[in-house]
């Protein structure tokens, strides 16, 4: 498919039109941001790892009944996906307390939650992506009640599958962020990416952080952490 116009450039990706109006091309970048863009940098090789890792996991989820926007990986950094209308809600699933959740509620990081927690955040950089309730989402017309129910169902299904898949690689899935989009048919499908940019991943034995928290918290070894996660996932075994 021939490249056409640049439709959108975000913090981590560029989106291009293709000759098929129902398909767009995603190009993953090495740019890194944190704290709603206040901290910026580069993680060498991140784009290639996040692209390939997302596609591996999208295929895995598709095989287990979760619909996604994935079409075809065309290079290390590029993927064709179905064009969707992104629902303006970030869906966060938490299995252990960490990050803003620990800070907000004073719960020690690493505390295992009684059950997976699903949270919605209004996808709006200018407002700092605030946490919203179902009623907020409905009043602001961000989603319908049926949409919210489907987002929860899909997010919990994704969590169940990813916890198992990461455990096979010797990793704890602490929490993660998902984005969903709507196809012209109205079907809601998983979009965006699944990577150390969007997931908190800890080593199962040592609880070493192997995700973007290493960039956020200036822990060092960021590139090595991304490479380690990708190597484990490809191998399918703990190391």
Features:
globular, 32% strand, 7-stranded antiparallel β-sheet, 239 residues, 5-stranded antiparallel β-sheet
Can you walk me through this structure?
The protein is α+β, with helices and mostly antiparallel strands and 239 residues long. It has helices at 46-63, 99-105, 134-139, 145-168, 213-216, 222-235; strands at 6-9, 13-17, 23-28, 31-34, 39-42, 70-73, 78-82, 85-86, 89-96, 112-122, 131-132, 171-182, 188-191, 199-203. It starts with 5 loop residues before the first strand and ends with a helix.
Q: What coarse outline follows from CA principal-axis ratios?
A: globular
Average predicted local confidence, pLDDT:
94
Number of helices: 6
Taking the alpha carbons of the first and last residues, their distance comes to: 39 Å
Q: List low-confidence stretches.
A: none
The percent of residues in helical segments reads 25-40%
Q: Mind describing the biggest β-sheet?
A: 7 strands, antiparallel
* Structural classification: alpha+beta
**Percentage beta strand:** 25-35%
Number of strands: 14
Order of helices and strands: EEEEEHEEEEHEEHHEEEHH
Radius of gyration: 17 Å
